[in-house]
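FORM 7B - TANDEM STRUCTURE REPORT

SECTION 1: FIRST PROTEIN
SEQUENCE AND TOKENS:
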Amino acid sequence: MNIIKSLFDHRRSNSLAARLRRKRFSLFRELAGKVERPIKILDVGGTADFWEKTGFLKDEPNVTITLYNLLANPSGLPQLEPVAGDARDMSRYPDDHFDIVFSNSMIEHLGEFEDQRRCASEMMRVGRRYFVQTPNRYFPIEPHFLYPYFQLYPARLKAFLLWKANIGWYPTATWEEAWETATSVRLMTKSELARLFPQARIIDEKYLGLVKSFTAIGGW
């Protein structure tokens, strides 16, 4: 399990997760380079730490990024604006308010498909372009809980494993915590993601010939 954890720990610069993230972000950087400055980016579920590590803002004085999360965590960087809100309802923003909507491994944390659909609809509404990544439901290792095919188990079995085995990135002390965690993540198939973003180009991100995640790209 420690080997699996090291592979999926994006904080380790040489991990599989970090390498794939860098490759994915290089594509985003290329696409963003085609957009006339100044540009406004909305990162749904993003963090200041993520953008600091990419180094993106060092060379981009005419870029501002809104970090949209349930809690507005101070960033300390003038180009990053933390905003608290619900990803399913961004009615504070008018249509096409942002040049780019970016999201990395967030939409699967909306536990029901209808919630994911509402989020995707809002992303497409408030942004002229979007770049949305999410893990593949059928990749053998579930990336949040680091357990083989965990995403396919019944909810009660998932909660039991979280409660008793202390697996993945989310330690739980009680059954209630385990149940909430187990039901808070819903990975998607490629066809489901295509339903959410019908005009998107869906890119497969592969490891050892297996599709680890998908990225929906639209507006370019």
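SECTION 2: SECOND PROTEIN
SEQUENCE AND TOKENS:
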Amino acid sequence: MIHMNYALAESKGLSEERIKLLEVLYKRMYSTLTRPEMFTDSYHKALERVRQIEYTLQYCWGFEENPSMWKYEFYLKGCTCPKIDNEELVGTDRRVYNMNCPYHSTEDTGF
């Protein structure tokens, strides 16, 4: 699910420095997804952290910022939104949310 695409990095001619930065970002993303309570004190803050990391990943890869390409938020520990449905919607501006999901509901609570 979370991995560095070294073939893409090579084809884009990314520098060693940029590749190391991307590796750090992917590790940060994995840690946040698997242990969000270690980095924030609420579900919504964890969701925002994941979105910020996704934005930074896009920037470091040289892609335009495009939230329709984001997908990692649905892999936060405890997210109850349909993962496969949302994977299929990547690239569109549509998403499927479970309104009882602690991350995607309107009510923010602490961990």
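SECTION 3: OBSERVATIONS ON SECOND PROTEIN
The first helix runs from residue 6 to 11.
Residues 6-88 form one domain.

SECTION 4: SIGNATURE
Preparer initials: ____
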